[in-house]
Amino acid sequence: QVQLVESGGGLVQAGGSLGLSCTASGSIFKINTMAWYRQAPGKERELVTSITSDGSRKYADSVKGRFTISRDNTKNTVYLQMNSLKPEDTAVYYCNAGLNIPITLRYLEVWGQGTLVTVSS
User: Fold this and answer.
1) Closest of 6, 18, 91 to residue 48, by C-alpha
2) Among 7, 24, 3, 34, which residue's Cα sits nearest to residue 117?
3) Which of 20, 75, 107, 119 would staple 85 via disulfide (CB 3.0–4.6 Å)?
4) What is the rounded distance in angstroms from the CA atom of residue 78 to the CA atom of residue 61?
């Protein structure tokens, strides 16, 4: 069984910074793309940023230049550094990973439990 455990989040003033981390644990052969999604109240979940196993990154236009995704493959961990935060960044942030499990190499998509980020104006 594989799980993603997130940490970080909380309350920050507009213009401030916050960091999130997410670690995968369990029976894992290889982690492919890792990503951060967010869901604001009353809105659909949206992709914020993603990073492949070789480090290729994509960002939503709304966070380009402010957010940075990185990962440590030795620790099965992905990070999200959020700078110049705005009230509209307020949301529950979810970690997501596509991975292969051992032996069968079956592909799984796994989600974290979510962590709340609140940006006050």
Assistant:
1) 91
2) 7
3) 119
4) 20
Cα angle value 33/57/42 (rounded, 5°): 75
User: At residue 20, what is the residue type?
Assistant: L
pLDDT for residue 38: 98
Helix/strand/coil for 89: helix
Note the pLDDT of residue 113: 96
What's residue 55's pLDDT? 94
The b-or-e profile of 19-37 (16+ CB within 10 A means b, else e) is ebbbbbeeebeebebbbbb
- For 44, the token pair is 């659909």
Low-confidence ranges of the chain (pLDDT < 50): none
